[in-house]
Design brief:
Elements: E1 4-6, E2 11-13, E3 15-20, E4 27-32, E5 50-56, H1 60-72, E6 76-82, H2 85-97, E7 104-108, H3 116-130, E8 137-141, H4 147-155, E9 159-163, H5 170-209
Parallel strand pairs: 5-6, 5-7, 7-8, 8-9
Antiparallel strand pairs: 1-2, 3-4
Helix pairs in contact: 1-5, 2-3
Length: about 210
């Protein structure tokens, strides 16, 4: 099928046709042979604009670069930053208490002490405690997505993985981030549709039994 760019691996990769069974109606999707991320040709598709993004990255330079890319490309109206996982979790909990809506989370995987993996798992626990719908997570790192990380993505869904790639210039990051934002938006929509179908099924079952 030829080589295509994968946002998860940060480079051109071979692909295969994958039958996705996560939702009620399985669909065929072209996926990366290494990280299983869906490969989509979306050069003319605009990424969905979101409200507030909470971004956690320990590198000041990368943190400011990511923030600038997101704001300049109008991917979000506000970006709140934190320097490491514990600070991120504190800020998110404060937002939950204040009932401030959060559209997306960007987590650096390799932050010291309290890394992005720990922060994501803790995030999902806090959301359940406050009965908040799960915010889409974009994991950000230079490492490839392995089998263990695929399990984390499944546990934390809607969640995707963005590889920094060999080039982390603003122009290169802009295209990758936009690509992942589009996929996260679609994943969130699929989850909503799946839940609607489940709710309708429950209502129909109740009506049939009455």
């Amino acid at each position: 099928m030829g080589l295509k760019y994968c946002a998860g691996c940060g480079e051109n990769v071979e692909t295969f046709i994958n039958l996705r069974r996560e939702y009620e109606n399985p669909v065929e999707e072209e996926s990366c042979i290494y990280c299983d991320m869906t490969i989509e040709d979306t050069p003319h598709e605009e990424p969905p604009a979101v409200g507030t993004i909470l971004l956690s990255e320990d590198s000041l330079m990368m943190r400011e670069m990511l923030k600038d890319v997101i704001i300049q490309n109008r991917l979000a109206s506000e970006v709140i930053t934190s320097t490491q996982g514990a600070d991120f979790l504190t800020q998110f909990t404060r937002m939950a208490i204040e009932k401030k809506e959060l559209s997306m989370v960007v987590l650096d995987v390799t932050m010291p002490i309290f890394n992005g993996v720990n922060a994501a798992i803790a995030l999902r626990a806090v959301e359940k405690a406050f009965k908040i719908k799960p915010a889409p997570i974009m994991f950000f790192t230079a490492k490839r997505c392995d089998e263990n990380f695929k399990k984390l993505l499944a546990y934390c869904r809607p969640a995707l993985y963005l590889n920094k790639g060999s080039s982390s210039t603003p122009d290169a990051l802009s295209g990758r981030i936009s690509h992942v934002f589009i996929q996260l938006g679609k994943a969130r929509a699929k989850m909503k549709d799946s839940k609607k179908d489940e709710s309708m099924g429950s209502l129909n079952a109740s009506a049939g039994g009455s």
